Amino acid sequence: MYVCGKGTEGYGTILPAVFEAWRAGMVKKVHLAAATCNGAAEARRKASELETIMGVSPDIIYYPTDRDNTSAFQTAVAALEGPAAAFISVPDHLHFEITAYCLEHNIHVQVVKPLVPTLRENRKLIALEKSHNVYGAVEFHQRFDEANLKLRELIQDKALGELLNFRINFSQRKIIPTTTFRGWISHTDIFQYLGVHYVDLIHFLTGAIPTRLMAVGQKKYLVAQGIDTYDSIQTVIEWRHEDSGFISSHLSAWIDPDHSSAMSDQRLEVIGTKGRYQSDQKSRGVTLTTDTGGVEEINPYFSQFYPDIDGKCRQIKGYGPASIIQFLRDVRDISAGRKTLADLSGLRATFATSLIIAAVLEASKQSLSEHNRWVSLDFLRDNSQ
Ligand SMILES: NC(=O)c1ccc[n+]([C@@H]2O[C@H](COP(=O)([O-])OP(=O)(O)OC[C@H]3O[C@@H](n4cnc5c(N)ncnc54)[C@H](O)[C@@H]3O)[C@@H](O)[C@H]2O)c1
């Protein structure tokens, strides 16, 4: 779904962003590895439609072609020539194996969130990244959303005073757990899939590190459908930065009606001693109502097609593609010797910043399985000092 919009009427985010990078002359050849021949054929069909929409025809080789093969990505890696980068967008439990393989073959990688759900795997990937001297990024596109960059600036300038609370409501439609992720639902939960976005974002906004966490979940709708996973999870996290602390509470759910006016309903509220920031990240002010689609609230800022200046074709724009194209720009700069790996931190989501995510995901599962107890994350602060 995220690569090319499989199962939706759209085209996903990664493939359109790669088309845009092709238009900019950043990409010579694209190797697209699926796990099945049908998956590869579906990607080819979406790519062909994208060519018409976007007015560019990248050189793409598809894998597998003759038989279903979950190792087809290895054939693609073997075919690479010259400086190469890989986007890894597969179910969460496969991130580690495929990312490690690419790093071992000296390929720069950008992995969709969450990088990996365990600290052990995260540390191994950092070690591989270092030993092979390649760049590892994580695709946390919320860092590129201007509504969040404005908040970061306000926090840095102390316009909100001392931070007290973050409150996040983030939910998606029932179709995600019941259909889209049905095949790998047992390998994730709603906090790991959606909640992590704002854990990364809070670290990005504040520089703070989590110190402890507790989680509570509800199982009602999905278990009744034969899917043993939480409908919603509430997570409370204590954070510390320098000598100051604050709390975040995250409500993550995936049982919104399929007729809701947007796939994602997301709201963020931040309260400080001198101010409040409220960001409705679902209702961005654009509502479309049609006979066929009903009422839809469109996010014009995430990943949308817009006409190019000559009015002849469409370009993909938004903070989703921006995060992907920035990775390719970074890889191009490394390959040309304009940047070193040490230069690539700043506002980027890296394998190192993902350690916080992995620790929080482990603690969340522990709290859920141990009667919602508080789980300490103090070791993260010790590591960072
Ligand atoms: N859907 C989104 O908007 C979104 C956004 C950001 C990140 N993500 C992340 O992207 C990842 C994939 O999510 P999705 O929504 O695209 O899920 P999905 O279930 O639609 O797609 C996963 C795809 O991976 C393929 N796959 C499995 N094993 C493979 C292998 N060995 N080689 C190649 N392909 C293989 C599957 O056939 C499937 O097509 C997840 O980690 C998810 O958290 C999704």
Your description of this structure?
This protein has 385 residues and is of the alpha/beta class. It has 2 domains: 14-140 and 317-343, 3-Layer(aba) Sandwich (Rossmann fold), CATH 3.40.50; 146-300 and 354-384, Dihydrodipicolinate Reductase, domain 2 (2-Layer Sandwich), CATH 3.30.360. 36% of the residues lie in helices and 25% in strands. The chain contains 12 helices and 16 strands. The chain has helices spanning 14-23, 37-54, 72-78, 95-104, 119-132, 146-156, 175-180, 190-206, 221-224, 319-335, 354-369, 378-384; strands spanning 30-33, 60-63, 85-88, 108-112, 136-139, 163-173, 209-218, 232-241, 244-256, 264-272, 276-280, 287-290, 294-297, 304-307, 314-317, 375-376. Strands 11-10-6-9-8-7-16 form a 7-stranded mixed β-sheet. It has a 3-stranded parallel β-sheet with strand order 3-4-5, sandwiched between helices. It has a two-stranded parallel ribbon with strand order 1-2. A hairpin with a 3-residue loop joins strand 12 and strand 13. Helix 1 packs across helix 2 (37-54), helix 1 crosses helix 10 (319-335) and helix 6 crosses helix 8 (190-206). The longest helix has 18 residues, at 37-54. The protein binds nicotinamide-adenine-dinucleotide. Nicotinamide-adenine-dinucleotide (NAD) is lined by residues 1-3, 6, 33-35, 39, 70, 73, 89-92, 94, 112-113, 180-181, 193.
